[in-house]
Amino acid sequence: MRTFPLSIGRSLIWCLALLMGCTDSYLPEALESPPNYLVVDGFLNAQGVTTVRLSRTYAVDSKAVAPAELRANAFIEDEAGARLGLREGVAGAYVSAPLVLDPAKKYRLRVLTQAGQDYASEFVPVKLTPPIDAVAWRATPEGVDVLVDTHDDQNASQYYRWDYEETWEINPPYRPNVEYVNGQMRDIVVPYPTICWGSALSTAIQIDKTTALSQDVVSGFRVRRLARTSERLTSRYSVLVQQHALTKEEYAYWELLRKNTESLGSLFDPQPAQLTGNVRCLSAPDQLALGFVSAHSCTEKRLFIARQELPQEWDVRTGYEGCLPPDTVYIDRPNPPIPNPVVILYGAFNPLSGNLPIEPVYGPGPVLQGYTAKSRDCIDCRTRGTTVRPTFW
Amino acid sequence: MKHVYPVLLMLFFTLQCFISTAQQSEKAVSGNFTQLPFEQFARQLESQTTLRFYFEPSVVDSLFITLQVQNQPVRSVLEQVLQNTPFRFAIDDENRVFITSGVTINPNLPGEFYQPKAGTPLAQADEAAATGPVARSRYVTASEFKVYEIGTASNSTRATLAGHIRAQKSGEPVIGASIYSEATSIGASTDQFGYFSLTLPTGRHDLKIRGVGIKNTRRQVVLLGNGKLEVEVEEDIVTLKEVVIEAEKDKNVSGMQMGLEKLDIKTMRQVPTAFGETDVLRVVMTLPGVKTVGEGSTGLNVRGGATDQNLILFNDATIYNPSHLFGFFSAFNPDILQGVELYKSAIPAKYGGRLSSVLDITTREGNKKKFSGSGGIGPLTSRLTLEGPLAKDKSAFIISGRASYSDWILKQLSDKNFKQSAAGFYDVTGHISHEINDKNSVYATGYFSTDRFRLASDTTYRYTNQAASVKWRHTFNNQLYGVLTGTYSHYDYSITSIKNETTASELAYAINQGGLKADFSFFPNSRHTVDFGGSSQLYRIAPGSFIPRGEASLIRPNVLPEEKALESALYLSDRFDITPRFSLSVGLRYSLFQALGPREVYVYAPGESRTEATIIDTVQHASNKVLAQYHGPEYRLSARYSLNDNSSVKASYTRTRQYIHQLTNTASVSPADVWKLSDGNIRPQIGDQVSVGYYRNFKGNTIEVSVETYYKTLRDFVDYKSGATLVLNRHIETDIINAQGQAYGVEFFLKKLTGKLNGWVGYTYSRSLVQVNAATTSDMINGGRYYPTNFDKPHDVTMVGNYRFSRRFSTSLNATYSTGRPITLPLAKYYVANSLRVYYSDRNAYRVPDYMRLDFAFNIEGGHKVKKLAHSSWTLGIYNVTGRRNPYSIYFKAVNGQIKGYQLAVFGAPIPSITYNFKF
User: Fold this and answer.
1) How far is CA A360 from the centre of its chain?
2) Domain extents for chain A?
3) What is the pTM of this model?
4) CATH says A29-124 is which class?
5) Which of B720, B890, B913 comes nearest A270 by C-beta?
6) Pairwise CB contact (< 8 Å): B839 & A202
7) ipTM here
């Protein structure tokens, strides 16, 4: 009987260890040899340049970027067999000349890969997207909502998708007047830019339909919500909203794609669904292709928001909060041993260190004590955007 | 003198007159007997001659016969047999053989000694004399040999005999015991109150009584007219021998029911479990046709049905979440349980409301004779039960509690996360029964269980089950009795997060169900048993609320409006024994469901996938106004045909309707699942099942084999669109789709519940498929084709074995294998619309690795002295002996753009446990 409490205690620890369970990595055979399907991303622009990106599916645990489909022969084809060619651009992008597609005809995308497979999307009607009536913004307690209004008097559109490209100004907090070049500290020759422009494409799928309404009107659909602390609102923000009219089938595709990929695999995640699109392989039906190719025109509208227009009490962040205050690299300490400024500076600013000097720090009197410094990301705004002023800015 | 006394009693009470034809004792007998108990030996001699043996079974139970005889006179055989034993025998001129210990008697009495007087109320007078302070066995034996005269003489040729079978020691009713007359092949079994009603030809009958957990006995009656017979039987204290065979004999081959699994608490105790505590639901899962998605889950999938399609009744009150601690324990304290019945097909008409099965859990009534208690100490929980009479023989109480001390253990651990975690539960069950008079009894049960767990000091989960039932049973006459039952069930959960003051919040859900039902049983004659009744229950659901906690919280309250509905049903069924070989049970249940206001109901554009964007109207319904109504018949048919004494064929057809749906889009049941009532946008589920089975017993009913096959269709059960939001959703119908299902399978079952080696082996081949072929293509799953459900595990083999070395030591082994459950895999990733997307396989197209587990337990019983202060037993167990890491959950996580798969094994190592049980 003396051992009884001990046994119980031991069992308890066992149990607790067990309640946490054991996690092992799981790689079923199906994942070891992932399918290599063609992925078609893009639409046939009824009034303008068509850009279609061709890539391949790849292993879920890969760190690489999606493998592009190179040297394919891609063209737009109508039901009579007339072809409009696409030219291969960079990294699997295939681009057409500016085109106008005939709304009375049906078109499809045809892709002949270098490996000899023949892919085609289904023939789709040409939809003409109505213009965007307005892109507006509204300040809410949570932040800024970007809203879009549109309508179609013909009641022909009904299904809509929007994407957008955001651009915003970046003002780095530092203006360095020294630079470290070839192991030497010197006055700066080419100053770092004081303004950059960041940009991003929408990643979320924004769709809406008006089938439940008596008129084909979209009013105040929120395409973007920016948190009130967003760094994109620091000084000036712009968003270009692009509108696509969809067919019912394409709308269903995007709706499913959105639900499918907006969450991934925790213990309690919902069931995903298999989704392909409207592209088939004509030469080998078991070779799947992913993506939905439709034919429509695209309309767009731009919106600007300046910091001054936002509520004053908002504590908008600059995105450089983590960069303040600057660090200091001292060249006169520790002492002893007698410090070697060359070694210290090399250690602090060699190209691999990722740090840049900002300005000299002088001690009592004119004695050079060292330099203030910060990482490149805090100083060179080209890590966050481009110095090329956008044409619309 | 001790051993002679029973013989004398027997002589007094035996009225039976044999007519002597010849001196049977000189008749020759043959046989080859090896280690045969004397009782069976005597029966064999009786079968070869017209001799009847009289002896005290408890006296001869140590006597085993090993003998080989060929055409030898009975007298000489008996002389050989009893030679060198203290036993003597005597044969009288009426061919009666008396076996006595130590003393030889002279069986020939003076002729006038024994003259029965017609019409004397022998039964009452002698019963009084026989009870009292005399030894127990003496009383029982006396009742066996006494002849009870029932009723008053009348002209009718048939009469009804009714009464109760109760345990002699505790006064509790014996459920499911059978009482039958072999000569007329008429029998009945006792219901949940221990009540039976038997219509027999008037005259003399020898009634045999058999049942689980009781010793076989018999009563001799002279039936003159309608009357009562109260039977007290001895409990079988230590061994499961005999008793179970006899009961199962009835059930397996000659019983009407098919697809019924009955387990008593003694059988359940033998099955090893993870934490050493007897677990009703775990044992149920070892039965063929019952599956579960994972081992940490108590969600049952019965014959391809979803986890919400099981009606779990605890003394008639519905239990919504039958689990404790993430499902590692079932919510029922084993000490208070009498047994469980699982109906997989041929669900009786009196049950309804769920599609797949009924799990009827009953508690014991408590000891009506003396105060006693029992309990146990296990690695994670302890439990204590007290019971006793409130008024002797009339009323009793039983109260049982169980609590975990996992909280305390977590506090002892050095890990900071553990210290701030908490996990604990407790449950309390109380039951009172009172017999007002011969015709009226009342019963009341209360049940409360609660769970609370907190993970690393942030989020606290808590859930509570409450159930109560009150029953009044009234016997109108021998042929008719009724039970009026009021029930109340409550389930609620809350998830509280208080770590961040500004976002401190509580998410809560609650369901309340109150019901009233009346059930009647009518026994017009021995060939018909009619059950009828009606029920009505009111549901009130608080479907979800999200409210701030504390002053500083900025959470905006979001409270979903209450849902209300009334579900009512009427039923009638008749069990008709057309011939002794062929019987039929025909039942009809008609159910009506009314969803009640006040409610706001959305109307959706027809032909469109339901989304917020397709809402075309909102209709406001006033309080208590019926906003949606569904009704329909539920057919319950079954038939049995006995091919011979050892085998039978049974068939059944069952339709069920279900109006309340559990919403869970995770594979296993989680405490945050909600129950949703049918309404204008959510149709009720309807299930149809056809089942055929063949049943055969071998080796004198010690081995029981059955094969059952079934085909089942399920209409409109709830499945979910991809990415469904189930919590705090004001338009839940936009995320739900009505799915169609089909399930089929074959179940092989072999059971041996006697002998040193006992247990069962079951193999099931089954499929469970679902189809979502909605009108709108975007809602279709897998292109509208049938696909496996989450719990489709085609092959399943389970073995539960028990080997008894002696009465004190036994071992149990539990082995289970099943196909891995289906899973949807992310097969590849790709880049579309500026974002990384995942290409998934068809839903449930792949399977997780197969499931395999072996458990072992060693039981040590204390000494078997009947009179002892306390009985105790130890159970040492190892769960998952091989330490196989069966995946409980498989999940994928995106880490730096890589998607990696992980499998989580809950019990990834052997788990030893030790439990101490006691009884006083």
Assistant:
1) 38
2) 29-124, 126-261+292-309, 324-382
3) 0.72
4) mainly beta
5) B720
6) no
7) 0.82
